[in-house]
Design a protein that fits this description.
- By secondary structure, the protein is α+β, with helices and mostly antiparallel strands.
- It has helices at residues 51-54, 94-97, 101-104, 168-179, 190-198, 207-215, 222-245, 251-268, 275-311, 321-344, 347-361, 373-397, 402-429, 431-469, 475-502, 505-511; strands spanning 3-14, 31-46, 58-63, 69-77, 80-86, 110-125, 131-144, 151-161.
- Strand 4 and strand 5 form a beta hairpin.
- Helix 8 (251-268) packs across helix 13, helix 9 (275-311) packs antiparallel against helix 10 (321-344) and helix 12 runs antiparallel to helix 13 (402-429).
């Protein structure tokens, strides 16, 4: 069983002769409890080409101290990481292995560095005796286990905020340390420093990082810009995989968006990227987005219905409405959650990730990719706009009802594609593309809320039927159905005005310069 915690810490350079300042002079510190010295032995694992280090992930097996076991750390922001822990064992626990699958694939994880640390621990305590932070002085010896045989040694100070502590407290500690001449560490982690200082040559970063910096020049052509956007979306898919497995908030949605943006880029920029290569990958991305959508759509629907019920006056909530909704929600989410994780564990998904890697390694650029961004990208964006305009026009011609609902849903998909096209071109075309994408998003929002209402009404009919079959009154479910009908009608009335702003000729002319 794995558990997790948010780790917020800062590291500082030190020597064996460094003396700590009087830490009770830090605001809020009433006492310093010297906890003594502990000996830590940690072996860090990675693939042969250091894929984890390239993405600033660390995986270690550590003995000694009060948290012996396997530790997997994901970067969140500077000085902030999520640490996933599993009990000590001889082999990597499966609960951690699955979180690395999108990066490791079929590659073997091998020991790369061993760190032996003598840690002198001090607890900084508040007036009530509560722990504010743990400060340790670490004497570290690093031994290279793979890709070399070098060693290194250094001393550092580490200050880790207590659980649920105020990050501003670390500023106060740092101020005191700086006044004593202690400087922040140049390395983000012990592993990064160990890899750099034990490398067989004068290397300062894992191979994957060095290669990326050398082979990713500043975008100049249309192809450069499109591929930069494509790489960003691929990176997002891979990085969000463990977040989805951990069921972190909004992770499924963000991963689904990345797959859709990627597929949209293939379709929008088909004059730049060879469709014989991108179409098969796009088909697999469509499959993945659909699978992720099962869980995401249920999540959105659940939140919408919960909010609708909460907005009702208590006198209008007749019968066990909340409990019936809760039971329906749990049953629906449980099935969709299992299916999502199953998809990420499957061979088809793994093959898709390999295809995306191959596409990055050998971009399928057509001759038009060599053109200037200002020539090729606006034409592609405006093709998607014309497609949207046709669908909006068709939807507005129809009378309210199922046919219009379907037409508005089709227009929503076109609006999303036009928005993504503008976003992909923003780095190259600047403010006009950004404004275009923003207006397309406004159209997408109106159409999206309309579609959410259509889906909600279907669910409300089901819940009303279940309530009726159980001998409960269906009054509240019918009332909510009427609210959704009114919400959809309001969005239909709003659409012409939103579309008028989004379809102004000046907006499109600005894209063309």
């Amino acid at each position: 069983m794995a558990d997790s915690k948010r780790e917020i810490e800062r590291k500082y350079e030190a020597t064996v002769d460094t003396r700590l300042p009087e830490l009770t002079r830090v605001a809020g510190v009433a006492a310093v409890d010297h906890r003594g010295v502990m000996e830590l032995d940690a072996v860090y694992y990675d693939t042969e080409d250091q894929r984890l280090a390239a993405d600033s992930l660390t995986l270690r097996r550590r003995t000694g101290g009060d948290d012996a076991g396997w530790h997997l750390k994901f970067p969140v922001a500077s000085g902030i990481r999520d640490e996933i822990r599993a009990p000590l064992s001889d082999t990597l626990p499966g609960s951690l292995a699955v979180l690395l699958r999108s990066r490791v694939r079929e590659a073997e994880l091998v020991p790369v560095v061993r760190l032996l640390s003598s840690r002198d621990v001090h607890h900084l305590l508040g007036p009530d005796g509560s722990l504010l932070a743990e400060l340790s002085v670490d004497e570290v010896r690093a031994v290279r286990l793979a890709g070399g045989s070098g060693t290194a040694a250094w001393t550092e100070i580490e200050v880790e905020l207590a659980d649920d502590g105020d990050p501003a407290f670390l500023d106060a500690v740092e101020h005191r340390l700086r006044k004593a001449g202690v400087k922040p560490s140049a390395s983000a982690s012990k592993l990064a420093r160990a890899l750099a200082e034990t490398a067989p040559e004068s290397k300062t970063a894992p191979k994957k990082q060095r290669t990326a910096k050398k082979t990713a020049p500043r975008p100049r052509t249309a192809g450069d810009h499109v591929m930069a956007y494509v790489r960003d979306q691929i990176t997002a898919v891979v990085a969000l995989d463990p977040a989805v497995r951990r069921d972190l908030p909004d992770s499924v949605h963000q991963m689904r968006v990345a797959t859709r943006r990627l597929r949209s880029a293939f379709r929008t920029y088909r004059k730049i990227l060879d469709r014989t290569v991108t179409d098969p990958v796009g088909d697999e991305l469509k499959w993945l987005a659909a699978e992720l959508g099962i869980d995401r759509d249920q999540e959105v629907l659940d939140e919408r219905l919960r909010a609708r019920i909460a907005d009702l006056p208590r006198t209008l909530v007749l019968g066990p409405v909340r409990s019936r909704h809760r039971i329906w929600s749990v049953a629906s989410r449980a099935g969709s959650r299992r299916r999502t994780v199953g998809v990420l564990d499957g061979k088809r998904y793994l093959a898709l990730l390999e295809s995306l890697d191959a596409l990055q390694a050998a971009p399928p650029l057509l001759p038009a990719a060599a053109h200037a961004p200002g020539d090729a990208l606006p034409r592609a964006v405006l093709r998607d706009y014309e497609r949207l305009a046709t669908r909006i026009g068709h939807a507005l011609e129809l009378r309210p009802g199922p046919d219009r609902d379907l037409a508005m849903h089709d227009a929503r998909k076109a609006a999303k594609r036009a928005r993504y096209a503008g976003e992909a071109a923003t780095d190259a075309l600047g403010r006009p593309a950004k404004k275009f994408a923003r207006r397309m998003k406004a159209v997408q929002t109106v159409l999206g809320d309309h579609q959410d209402s259509v889906v909600a009404r279907d669910a409300l009919r089901t819940l009303a039927a279940q309530a009726h079959a159980a001998g409960e009154t269906a009054f509240t479910w019918g009332l909510l159905y009427g609210h959704e009908e009114a919400a959809a009608a309001a969005r239909e009335e709003e659409l012409p005005e939103v579309w008028e702003r989004a379809s102004r000729p000046k907006l499109r002319a600005a894209l063309e310069g």
